[in-house]
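Pipeline run #58 for the internal structure catalog. This entry was flagged by the ingest filter as a single-chain record with no existing model, so it goes straight to prediction. Upstream metadata was stripped on purpose; only the residue string is passed forward. Reviewer on rotation: M.T. Logging verbosity set to normal.
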Amino acid sequence: HLSIRRQRQMCIRDRLRAGVAFNFETKSSYSVRVRTTDALGLSFEKAFTITVNDLNETPTDVALSATAVNENVAINTVVGTLTSTDADAGSTFTYTLVSGTGSTDNGAFNISGNSLRLSVSPDFETKSSYTVRVRTTDAGGLFFEKSFTITITDINDAPTDVALSATAVNENVAINTVVGALSSTDADAGSTFTYTLVSGT
């Protein structure tokens, strides 16, 4: 039993083990000095450099520089620029729209390089926000996904029509007799209007 115990102790004592969780990005090498001592107390010492290997790590976040865009802008208007967070310095990333939670409106967008762009011309009165799901993938194939809500900003739309409630009036009526009431058609709910007589056809 004693010899087995000694063998086990030797197996434990002759291993250099990690005393911390190594992180290449924090510290890429360590220097240690080891002493070996024989049964009679004589010893020898030597220094070693332990190199920490850099492994590819998964991106931890993806960000979008802007999440609001005006209504009525042209197709392929850039909403914002995508950037990634990754512990690996100098990593490069590709961005794609993927299905999953928050991908409801992926079809209304496209990605060119690191730019999220519109594939439609949005209309606030029809739809005021969109949700998309973006994947960032590093050069080693590791990826992270996140959904974004894109808000459509309501801008003032021009009136599209003006109507007159009556277009006939009796002769001999007094000055300032009302011919009819004017009303306007406008996509913007709650708009107020002023009316003027102007030159033209």
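catalog note: Residues 2-13 form the longest helix (12 residues).
catalog note: The CA atoms of residues 29 and 51 lie 4 Å apart.
status: ready for reviewer M.T.
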